[in-house]
Specification:
Elements lengths: L8 E6 L11 E6 L5 E6 L7 H9 L7 E6 L7 H19 L6 E6 L8 H14 L4 H9 L9 E6 L5 E7 L12 E6 L5 H13 L16 E6 L9 H21 L7 E9 L2 H13 L1 H8 L5 H9 L11 E4 L2 E5 L2 E2 L12 E7 L5 E8 L3 H9 L3
Parallel strand pairs: 4-5, 8-9, 10-14
Antiparallel strand pairs: 1-2, 2-4, 3-9, 6-7, 7-8, 10-15, 11-12, 11-14, 12-13
């Protein structure tokens, strides 16, 4: 069990008829308490989908009884009518659960610019309500109900030795970039926690996990990561303990998202160390991760460190070329302003690739999780409207 692994949660994933394929396309997650504390982080894209605007508003009180999510339509760039559809969805969930609409978050994913088939959405809420369960099957169906171009559901769970736990699911395969992605994630915990602590813990976890996933530089309109706390374990962890377990589960989900991202043949970690500031480390690592020349070289298993040097050299960060070193899969190929080894010494034939850049000017570091750029990515995104 994942999203229903922590005590106090039920979930369901059903085929509401939003997708023409008949696949699961609507998910409901319910917090049965006794607490209803919640926190969320959202896309920083200026073009925000109606569900993001709604959920940001209801999260101001940091309380949620439920989250309803649909795939098959993003409900983004749909104007006032799209926001009314989101409101109606929350009202429907509130009605079946006998709670207030302000206690219901809404998430959507799929094609931008089209209204949702609301008859299917609303009837799907009824079906999901009747299917709510705390079983492993319910967790799995909930994870499947948010899939778009994903080829498999992404779930994670971890239990602390003190008896409380964190679980959750995520979706996303393309438009994955910094500041979240075309990605929805619901995390649950049965820890006893106040809203301020939960908010800080979530932000601390996402800062080094979801915010560091960068497949293609596309920041989506619908990004949402929510965490709901039921308090059902009766255990109150420290903020550090909560942040650590949320980070563990979030990173597990991020690595699953990367592995299943569109067209990916390489799992690439870009680590920048020796930076003057963390912001510099993030900026340099992100630029390398997003650079198409670097990404295509990695697809070809070519340890072309010159492309990495080019990419990092265009970042407005504190960089001394004579102090920079570049290593790929454990082989230092560039140091002190000149080649340090024959590039063929670095073996990139496997799926896992580690790029480590040491700027040599400070003590800060950051890692960005990315992929290569393959024929498969181009083919999928030229054939699929996303």
């Amino acid at each position: 069990m994942t999203v229903t692994g922590p005590q106090g949660f039920r979930a369901a994933g059903v085929a509401a008829g939003i997708k023409a394929s008949g696949a699961l396309d609507l998910t409901l997650v319910v917090n049965d308490g006794p607490l209803d504390v919640a926190a969320g982080v959202f896309t920083r894209n200026v073009i925000k989908a109606a569900p993001v605007l709604w959920s940001q508003e209801v999260l101001k009180q940091q309380r949620l009884k439920a989250v309803v999510l649909n795939s098959g339509g993003a409900n983004a760039a749909t104007g006032p009518g799209g926001f009314q559809d989101t409101h109606a969805t929350a009202e429907k969930v509130a009605d079946v659960l006998q709670v207030g609409a302000i206690e219901v978050a809404v998430c959507s994913t799929g094609l931008i610019g089209e209204r949702l088939p609301m008859d299917a959405v609303l009837s799907g809420v009824d079906t999901a309500f009747k299917s709510l369960d705390a079983s492993a099957e319910a967790s799995l169906n909930a994870a499947k109900g948010v899939m778009t171009t994903d080829t498999k559901p992404k779930q994670a769970f971890a239990k602390h030795e003190k008896g409380w736990s964190v679980g959750g699911f995520a979706k996303g395969a393309g438009m994955l970039a910094p500041n979240l992605a075309t990605m929805l994630s619901v995390l649950t915990t049965d820890a006893v926690v106040d809203k301020e602590t939960l908010d800080r813990a979530l932000r601390g976890a996402t800062h080094v996990t979801f915010d560091r996933l960068d497949v293609d530089g596309g920041t989506s309109t619908n990004d949402t990561v929510l965490v709901l706390a039921s308090g059902a374990s009766g255990v109150e962890p420290t903020e550090a303990e909560l942040t650590e377990l949320l980070t563990t589960v979030s990173l597990d989900l991020v690595l699953q998202l990367r592995a299943d991202s569109e067209g990916a043949t390489k799992d690439v970690n870009v680590t920048v160390q020796g930076a003057e500031t963390e912001a510099d480390a993030i900026a340099v690592a992100r630029t390398i991760a997003e650079d198409n020349l670097v990404k295509t070289a990695l697809f070809g298993s070519d340890p072309n460190w010159g492309r990495i040097a080019m990419a990092l050299g265009r970042v407005p960060a504190t960089i001394d070329p004579e102090r920079v070193s570049i290593a790929i899969n454990g082989v230092t190929l560039f140091a002190q302003g000149m080649p340090a080894a024959d590039r063929t010494e670095a073996d990139l034939t496997g799926r896992a690739i580690e790029i480590v850049v040491d700027l040599g000017v400070g003590g800060e570091a950051a890692t960005i999780y990315t992929t290569d750029l393959s024929h498969g990515y181009v083919e999928e995104n030229s054939a699929y409207s996303s």
